[in-house]
Amino acid sequence: MPKSLAQLLGKAGSKLKAKTINGIAGVGLYYQLNTAEIRIGSIINQAEKAIVKIEVPMIKGTVLETIEDCVYLNADNVVSKATIEVVEDGGKVGLSVSGAGYLVDLSLIKNLTAKIPGGANNTNLGKTLFEDAYKIKPTSGTPKTLLDDILAKGDNAIDGVASGSKTEALVDDIFQSQGYTKVDGKYFGDAGSNGFDNVFIKGTIDNPSEIIIIECKQMKQAGNVVLNSPASTGLPAQMSDDWIKYIAREKLKNLGVDKTKLANTILSNQSSFIQKYVVAVDKTAGEVNFLKLGNY
Fold first, then answer.
1. Distance between CA atoms of residues 134 and 138, nearest Å
2. pLDDT, tens digit, for every residue of 55-83?
3. Spatial separation of the C-alpha atoms in residues 30 and 49, rounded to whole Å
4. Quick one: which of 116, 264, 276, 283 could link to 293 by a disulfide (CB 3.0–4.6 Å)?
């Protein structure tokens, strides 16, 4: 009886090795989630794939072998990771899947065309801008749980939990799962918690190779998102370069420890170095939209 994935799949099993598929690193094993199709092979490039297809039953049973960080392609061609188990049940050997996660292709987000908000104060992100947004519908894991909760109950302030906290937690899970470090960019003001909803870095906070600042919003019924305007806050337009520098200089710099370090890093770098995004939940479509902002 086969006791390992290599034995179960025969000679094709010898092709298992580290791969990077659509920017996601993992073992070179991926399968079609709904049809239980196992694919072993190499990705030559984005246009041409060399793949050996082998049908293996997906069953539950006694685990014989576990392989972490396998890469799978689901029915919607979304690349993710999972743990593949070789299992035995009543003399039948097959595969099982556990720990399947939902990973966002951050390279596609970073390569989006940057948009500039419209309106007199650069605070309106119109519906047409979101036509070019990166859209996801999480199918598993924490992102799915959070999105389902937002769709059912909204993301407003309740029972001491700040407005937008669920969307911020969803974004945290996506970026931290792909190696980014979260930095607290908030301060407590007259209206409660203010500042940057999400800040992520690569490298050290004193000398990062990347800084990402994200504002989380709920999309309006008209399909647009409205950022805070100078008329209502007395500050520069939310998510503008001046606003980001203002928050760093006037609100975070004197708070100490990592917030001071973050402020100094923001102020010492050109605005073009800082990546800015608005993440908006479209409750009508059940999607999360990632919109890249330009410098303005």
1. 13
2. 456 667 788 877 666 655 544 444 555 66
3. 13
4. 276
